[in-house]
Amino acid sequence: VAEVWWMGGALKVPGNVIQEGHDGTAEWNAYWDPPAAGEVWNSSVPLVMVPLDATNSVPVTTALVYSFGPQSQYTFSALAGSMWAQVVTWQLDNKNAGFEYFAWDALTAACSLKPDL
């Protein structure tokens, strides 16, 4: 393994853990499995971190999902549109939870393929 790209952490922005009794500073991936996060950070493999500071710039909005519609004749657009539609539906159903969805892993994967993004 040449390097690990990790979507995780938050440097200068609030975390994304919404749990009763939590102070809002933790990022979900580190919060959910601290021992695994520790293994990643303590590994000798070079680590590239894509924190919430970066992923907060790519919200999954209704407008984004609707933008796939005009291109639905393309397999990828149809697939992406239907997948993201589920997210937006979930987000609308949980509107009062105060949770927003972002393209966390999609941005990390894109950056791993094109680091100059």
Automatic annotation (TrEMBL):
Q: Which residues form the Inosine/uridine-preferring nucleoside hydrolase domain?
A: 1-116
Q: Name one GO biological process term.
A: purine nucleoside catabolic process
Q: Which GO terms describe its molecular function?
A: purine nucleosidase activity
Return the InterPro entries for the record. Answer: Inosine/uridine_hydrolase_dom, IUNH, Ribo_hydro-like
Q: Which Pfam families match?
A: IU_nuc_hydro
User: Key word Hydrolase present in the record?
Assistant: yes
Domain of life, per the record? Answer: Eukaryota
Q: Family per UniProt?
A: Belongs to the IUNH family.
This chain belongs to the protein called Inosine/uridine-preferring nucleoside hydrolase domain-containing protein
Say which species the protein is native to.
Chlamydomonas leiostraca
